[in-house]
């Protein structure tokens, strides 16, 4: 179960999709219950996954709609469980967890949960909700995590912040299962071009540090004009970023590509880039953008924030910058643009790190082992 799924595009959606698709291709019956979206069928099959959407959306503003979604998902998963007798329910996020708990207690089906971060890991100036709202949500999150059989953390850093936020009582439930990337799809290919291509994939917002990236790239580009920045994604501040580029006459050096839904096109963008940058301002689990960049053998720069990013990029796998430090990011970009040996070493380390620790196959082996443990 997940509150986020296609056609919405974000990191958690990609993670859920790849996980479920791989399970289905291995001969498992996989049902995915998710929130409704306007203009999208309530029932369809994607990549072998039998998707069942509710009639309500959690994104709808009123509290009544959100409560109706949770109740509807509770009923849907209960009825599906009665009919198909699932061996295990794997939920993503506490809202899906709330909907799955009745099946655990009434039908004795084990429930695992993977969380995808919390605003408490963000700088306060970026919070979307009030502190009162976040504290109330934290109560629900703690309740759900305490009732699930297993809690999945994507890295040691994620486990550390989860215990701080949700309490030490869940410590014995936490299993570390690194997020996996499809290394057969995101492959490393050599790139030879005098123009250094920098790629950003994510929401166009300050949560992902887009202003920091634009300022840093402008500084690096001034010293190394044979460079180009491409931004993949959309967001509420997209217009502001476009205007910033126009005001500085950087239209030939900075390209906004919008959201990319075609995996083949996304892979080609990674392959035609030299450096992948995600200067995120927020902590949380491992980023799919980082893993996809590493899997394609690209030098990756991201932020030393609490959670999974430092766990992945430490030890020379990538570069870690201080949050919001434009000068440091500009220096890192310029160094990679002008030092072919450093760039080559990082490319080799990137792919090796994925093959050793972050493949989709490795993630599925570990999760399948946990599923079997719960059902035996």
Walk me through this protein's architecture.
By secondary structure, the chain is an alpha/beta fold. It has 2 domains: 11-180 and 360-375, Glycogen Phosphorylase B (Rossmann fold, 3-Layer(aba) Sandwich), CATH 3.40.50.2000; 196-357, Rossmann fold (3-Layer(aba) Sandwich), CATH 3.40.50. The chain is built from 13 helices and 13 strands. It has helices at 11-25, 63-84, 94-107, 131-147, 156-166, 210-223, 238-247, 263-271, 288-295, 308-313, 326-338, 340-357, 360-375; strands at residues 31-34, 43-46, 49-53, 89-92, 111-114, 150-153, 174-176, 196-201, 227-232, 254-258, 275-278, 299-303, 319-321. The strands form 3 sheets. A 6-stranded parallel β-sheet has the order 10-9-8-11-12-13, sandwiched between helices. Helix 4 links the parallel strand 5 and strand 6. Helix 1 (11-25) crosses helix 13 (360-375) and helix 2 packs across helix 3. The longest helix is centred in the N-terminal third of the chain and has 22 residues, at 63-84. It is globular, with a radius of gyration of 21 Å. 42% of the residues are buried. The mean pLDDT is 90.
| Biggest pleated sheet | 6 strands, parallel
- Give me the CATH architecture of the largest domain, please: 3-Layer(aba) Sandwich
> Which runs of at least 5 residues are low in confidence (pLDDT < 50)?
none
Placed side by side, the strands forming the largest sheet appear as 10-9-8-11-12-13
Please, what is the average pLDDT? Answer: 90
What's the Cα radius of gyration? 21 Å
Tell me the total number of β-strands. Answer: 13
- The class by helix and strand makeup works out as alpha/beta
């Amino acid at each position: 179960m997940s509150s986020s799924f296609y056609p919405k595009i974000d990191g958690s959606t990609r993670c859920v999709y790849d996980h479920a698709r791989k399970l289905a291709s291995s001969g498992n019956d996989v049902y995915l219950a998710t929130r409704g979206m306007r203009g999208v069928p309530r029932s369809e099959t994607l990549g072998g996954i039998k998707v069942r959407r509710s009639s309500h959306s959690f994104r709808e503003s009123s509290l009544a709609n959100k409560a109706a979604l949770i109740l509807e998902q509770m009923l849907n998963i209960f009825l599906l469980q009665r009919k198909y007798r699932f061996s295990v329910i794997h939920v993503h996020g506490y809202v899906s967890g709330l909907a799955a708990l009745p099946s655990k207690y009434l039908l004795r089906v084990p429930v695992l949960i993977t969380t995808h971060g919390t605003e408490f890991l963000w700088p306060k100036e970026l919070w979307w909700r009030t502190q009162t709202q976040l504290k109330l949500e934290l109560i629900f999150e703690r309740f759900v995590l305490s009732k699930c059989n297993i809690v999945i953390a994507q890295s040691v850093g994620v486990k550390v912040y989860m215990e701080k936020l949700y309490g030490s009582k869940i410590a014995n439930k936490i299993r570390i299962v690194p997020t996996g990337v499809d290394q057969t799809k995101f492959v490393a290919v050599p790139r030879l071009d005098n123009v250094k291509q920098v790629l950003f994939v994510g929401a166009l917002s300050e949560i992902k540090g887009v202003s920091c990236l634009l300022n840093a790239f402008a500084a690096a580009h001034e010293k190394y004009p044979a460079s180009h920045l491409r931004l993949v994604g959309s967001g509420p501040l997209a217009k502001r970023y476009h205007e910033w580029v126009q005001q500085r006459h950087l239209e030939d050096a900075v390209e906004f590509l919008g959201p990319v839904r075609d995996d083949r096109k996304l892979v080609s963008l990674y392959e035609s880039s030299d450096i992948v940058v995600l200067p995120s301002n927020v902590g949380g689990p491992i980023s799919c953008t980082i893993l996809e960049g590493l899997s394609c053998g690209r030098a990756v720069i991201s932020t030393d924030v609490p959670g999974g990013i430092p766990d992945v990029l430490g030890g020379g796998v990538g570069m870690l910058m201080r949050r919001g430090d434009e000068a440091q990011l500009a220096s890192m970009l310029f160094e990679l643009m002008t030092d072919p040996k450093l760039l080559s070493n990082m490319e080799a380390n990137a792919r090796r790190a994925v093959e050793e620790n972050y493949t989709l196959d490795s993630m599925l082996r570990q999760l399948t082992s946990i599923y079997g443990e719960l059902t035996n």
